[in-house]
Write a structure and sequence with these properties.
Elements (H helix, E strand, L loop, with lengths): L1 H13 L5 H30 L4 H29 L1 H17 L7 H28 L6 H8 L1 H18 L6 H17 L16 H7 L6 H18 L4 H15 L5 H19 L1 H7 L6 H16 L10 H23 L7 H7 L1 H21 L6 H29 L2 H22 L6
Helix pairs in contact: 2-3, 2-5, 2-7, 2-8, 3-4, 3-5, 3-18, 4-5, 4-8, 5-18, 6-17, 7-8, 7-14, 12-17, 12-18, 12-19, 14-17, 15-16, 15-17, 15-19, 17-18, 18-19
Length: 445
């Protein structure tokens, strides 16, 4: 009986997932993504209300995207070297500065600077938070925990754009930036409480970070980085300025930024996210072209489905092979876009509006599974000391795909029509599954 009780106790301890620090990190992600969703969906309307130009809005959007992509490359290695909390706090501070700025100056070059700061801060805070989530979870339930942590992102996607449009429509329009500044401040406040790196003994006994710490694998970041840095400076001072030295330095920089073991999840999400880009940037316009009464209802339905997937992920995320989950995600997305193609061709007659709304169900399932599965694959295949770089690569793939695909789909819609873009999304989703078959680990991780 005693042995059974001890075994049960160990099993329940091994299976522990939720903890206060995990919930705090999820909240950081929620407020961080609320800022990202808010500034991206509300800025164009804001500039229209205050007399800004569409050109300034476009330049600002580009500044946000480029800054976020560059920061992904930089902060991944920094998260691994200097710690999650310091990058999370710094990112939230930069993001806060970027949201406060438009309340002071909202035109010309300064406004573009604010958009850059928003992108830099958002990227740093979200990358550090994603890595911190993996730290505080047991490795055996990593996929499940990442699925739950995505609730913050899913909730922000469901309420962020609507909240931003509401705020920017009130008087004065600056209420938009008051709202996102509050969200950035909340992200900063919560990030300050993420002190588990200094107090790993306060984490659940089976959390990955505490396990590594107890094994003596986790060392102080300063000790890891200071000595190599000094050695590199001494070598650089003594070595001749030759092509070989320059090449080795570039190789070292590439190794710091790129984590080869995370390429599988990164490449799959890069291809898959082209369909996500159509959903984010053009699904509303597609609905308007079909003359549906409320195109925004599609997004609400998709977001609800995403939330349901994340809430139930514990039943399957770490128990089903990742390639099987990708099969479901890709098939669901393909179904959604095939329904959209049918709408574009008028196959559903008077039921077109209902079919358009119904597309949100399979596509919400596609997004709800697609991102956490690929993030979990990338993290599980990467050594723990490189999880920051792995998360940064996956999120960078998502950012770059959204940026590139938005241009491609926009050109196709303008010159060929929505049907061609919808078929293109079907093909990209099918390609993402084929890549998963080739690049995912063969065994069930």
């Amino acid at each position: 009986m005693l042995a059974t009780m001890e075994s049960t106790s160990k099993t329940s301890q091994r299976e522990r997932l939720f903890s206060p620090i995990f919930l705090i990190i999820v909240a950081v992600m929620f407020f961080t993504f609320l800022v990202g969703q808010g500034v991206n969906s509300g800025t164009t309307v804001y500039l229209e209300r205050v007399g800004g130009t569409a050109t300034l809005a476009g330049i600002g959007a580009m500044a946000f995207s480029v800054a976020a992509a560059v920061m992904r490359l930089v902060c991944g290695p920094v998260v691994d070297a200097r710690g999650r909390r310091i990058v999370m706090v710094a990112g939230a501070l930069i993001m806060l500065a970027g949201t406060l700025g438009p309340l002071v100056v909202n035109e010309g070059a300064p406004f573009v600077v604010w958009r850059m700061l928003q992108g830099l801060g958002f990227s740093a805070a979200s990358t550090a938070a994603a890595t911190a989530v993996a730290d505080v979870l047991p490795f055996s339930r990593l996929g499940e925990g990442i699925g739950y942590s995505g609730l913050g992102q899913a909730l922000s996607m469901s309420i962020g754009p609507a909240l931003a449009i509401f705020l920017v429509s009130t008087d004065p329009a600056e209420n938009l930036y008051l709202g996102v500044t509050f969200c950035a401040a909340m992200a900063l406040l919560l990030a300050l409480f993420c002190r588990y790196e200094k107090h790993p003994q306060d984490l659940p006994p089976t959390s990955e970070y505490r396990v590594r710490w107890e094994r003596g694998v986790v060392r102080t970041h300063a000790a890891e980085q200071t000595e190599p840095a000094h050695e590199e400076l001494e070598v650089a001072a003594k070595a001749p300025a030759s092509e070989a030295v320059a090449k080795s330095r570039w190789q070292a920089m590439a190794r710091a930024v790129i984590e080869p073991t995370a390429l599988g999840g990164t490449l799959v999400i890069f291809v898959m996210a082209t369909a996500f880009a159509f959903n984010v940037f053009f699904m509303g316009s597609f609905g308007n072209s079909l003359h549906v009464a409320n195109a925004g209802l599609y997004y609400t339905i998709a977001a609800i489905m995403m939330i349901l997937v994340r809430l139930t992920s514990g039943r399957f995320m770490d128990k089903v092979a990742p390639v099987k989950l990708m099969a479901v995600a890709a098939a669901s997305g393909i179904l959604a876009f095939l329904l959209g193609a049918g709408c574009a061709q008028g196959l559903f007659g008077g039921a077109t509006e209902m079919v358009f709304y119904a597309m949100g169900v399979p596509f919400g399932l596609c997004m709800g599974l697609g991102l956490p599965v690929n993030q979990a694959v990338a993290v599980k295949m990467t050594p723990p000391e490189r999880w920051g770089a792995a998360n940064a690569m996956v999120l960078l793939g998502l950012d770059l795909s959204n940026g590139a695909a938005s241009i491609i789909w926009g050109l196709m819609i303008e010159h060929v029509g929505f049907l061609a873009a919808l078929v293109g999304c079907v093909l990209m989703l099918a390609l993402s599954f084929l890549l998963a078959c080739a690049l995912y680990p063969k065994e069930d991780t």
